[in-house]
Amino acid sequence: MLLKGLPRIGLGLAALGRPGYINLDRTAQIAERSEEAMQQRAFEVLDAAYAAGVRYFDCARSYGLSEVFIRNWLAEQQQLVPGDGQIVVGSKWGYRYTANWQVEVPGGGAHEVKDHSLEHLNAQSAETLATLGGGGGSGGNSYLKLLQIHSATLESGVLEDEAVLSRMAELRDAHGWRLGLSLSGVAQGKTLRRALETGIFDTVQATYNCLEQSAGQDLLAAKEAGLEVIVKEAMANGRVLRSPPLLAAAERLGCAPDALALAAVVQQPFEPIVLSGAVTPSQAESNCEAMALAESLRGTGEVEALMEALVVAPEAYWQERSELAWN
C-alpha cells in the first residue's frame, strides 16, 4: 500500500502553485502573487506542514508551478532521502494550465482546459517525469509515487479509452508509479464505480466534506476493494467555515473550525488521507490539529451529528461551487 502508515492529513498545492484559485477570502490571505513570492509562500507552508506531520503532497500539471515548487522545496530538505517512502508525492495529468500566471483571465477565459487524450497523457507524463523524476521500478530514487487522472468523468470517456489505460499501465511498470484518479461533480460515485471495473487503479481522490457527502458509500466500497482514498476540498473551498452549526460546534468543543471540519472527514470509515489546502503556515498548523481531534471525538457522536446537520444536496453543492470566482 502506498499511503498506509502516513499521517492522515496531506497537503494539496492547488491553491499554492498558481496565483489564482476559487477559495474564499484568498485576496486577504495572499497579497503578492509573483512566481518568486508564490514559491516563497509555498516553501513556508510546506515547512509548516512537514513540521506538523504531513508526509503526502499532492500536485498537478494544471496547478501552475506546483510540481516545480515541491521539487525545489524537496531539494532543500537535507534530512530526507528520496525513495525511502517517508515522503510521497502524487501528481495528475489531464488538465492544461492556461491562465498564464494571471489571477483573472481576460474575457472570462479558462484557467485550465481538460484533455484526457492519449497524446496529452504522453505529453504531461513526460513533463511530470522531467520535473519530479521517475519512481524507478523497484522503489526508485524519486519522491513521485502516484500518477492520477485529473477529474476523470464518464463524459470525458477516459475510463473507456483502452489506449490511455494501457499507457498508464506502461508508465506504472516503467517508473514504479501507482495509478489513481481524481473525481469531481455530482456523478463522482458513478464514475468511481466504473473506475473500479477497470481494475487498474490503486487510489481514488474525491471531494467529500460536511456539505457534500454523496460519494461516501462508493468511497467505502473502493476501500474495501483495496483502493486507498484521498479526499480533496474537505473544507469546500472555505464554504463550510461559514456554516453556523460548524462554528457553534467548534466553539462548544473549544477547537478551531477548520480542524473540526477536517476531523469530521478524517474520521470517516473509508479512512482517507485528507488534503489540507492551506496557503499560510498558521492554516497548515491548524489543519493538522484535525488528526488528534478526530481521535478525541471518536465515539462521542459529535461528528455524526455535525455531518447530519450540514449535508446538502449534491446538485446544489456543485452548482454553488461552479459559481465561485477566481481570486
UniProtKB/TrEMBL annotation:
Q: Where is the NADP-dependent oxidoreductase domain?
A: 27-293
Q: What InterPro entries would the database entry show?
A: AKR2_Oxidoreductase, NAD(P)_OxRdtase_dom_sf, NADP_OxRdtase_dom
Source taxon at top rank: Eukaryota
Q: What is the name attached to this protein's record? A: NADP-dependent oxidoreductase domain-containing protein
Give the source species: Triparma strigata
